[in-house]
């Protein structure tokens, strides 16, 4: 199987072709995790690189993510059946009081494209909902986004809720969003900070010690 064909379909945002290629590969017995790691991840890695260098803009990222998701939708259900492992489990959301989710969605899609299992809780997520999801999904990382200076304190409140529920010691915490900085991460005791989707993938890999 030439997995670079699938990577190229992701990079150029061909969601119908990506779905057809994926179905054909699965029908021929290709392992879904192999397809993700050799086709989708390199494709989204390249998109992350181009986005970071300023070579492409948000619409290109979004159409690439749509192609990645079209393929992932076919491959992912088969992973559970065949017992193969994703690289790690992430619970992500925009904190309570904050409705901005465009950036969070991008980060979420990049993480999924990089081979992580992502449970996206949406926006306006309460600390209690983060805690409940972290407990439910055997989570490695709780990832929080905030776009408003007024909602940034909810990140610290969520960490406090994770501590109170005795979940904090089992998970890493990553934060991001326009008003968020590394200094803030240090101050509130988050384990990682990322300023965009590509960096979020890098920080996640570092926190979990995976490639
Ligand atoms: Co609002 N808004 N907004 N807004 N909005 C901003 C954020 C603002 C900077 C505009 C401004 O005044 N110049 C300002 C915040 C000021 C501040 O607090 N410092 C603002 C405001 C004030 C408001 C309202 C209060 C306006 C009002 O009603 N008076 C209101 C609040 C509603 C609420 O949340 N309770 C409001 C509402 C809205 C809309 C609903 C209309 C809409 C959101 C739609 C949506 O998200 N579904 C909206 C939008 C679109 C914006 C701007 C224009 C664009 C945000 C965006 O999507 N950027 C924004 C101004 C601006 O940024 N130019 C603005 C694109 C996105 C790809 O970037 O979200 O930064 P970003 O995500 C990046 C990184 O930050 C990072 O990676 C992403 C990809 O590179 N990242 C992470 C994000 N999360 C991460 C998590 C990670 C790691 C990296 O790990 C977990």
Broad structural category = alpha/beta
Largest sheet: 5 strands, parallel
What is the rounded distance between the termini?
Answer: 23 Å
**What is the helical fraction, as a range of percent?**
55-70%
Strand tally, please? 5
Silhouette: globular
Number of domains: 2
Uncertain stretches: none
CATH architecture of the largest domain: 3-Layer(aba) Sandwich
Assigned CATH superfamily of the largest domain: Cobalamin-binding domain
Count of DSSP H/I helices: 9
What's the level 1 CATH class of the largest domain? Alpha Beta
Bound molecules: CO-5-methoxybenzimidazolylcobamide
Q: What order do the helices and strands follow?
A: HHHHEHEHEHEHEH
Give the overall average pLDDT. Answer: 92
Query: What spatial order of strands do you see in the largest sheet?
Result: 2-1-3-4-5
* Backbone CA Rg: 17 Å
- Annotated CATH topology of the largest domain: Rossmann fold
Strand content: 5-15%
Could you provide a short overview of the structure?
With 211 residues, the protein is of the alpha/beta class.
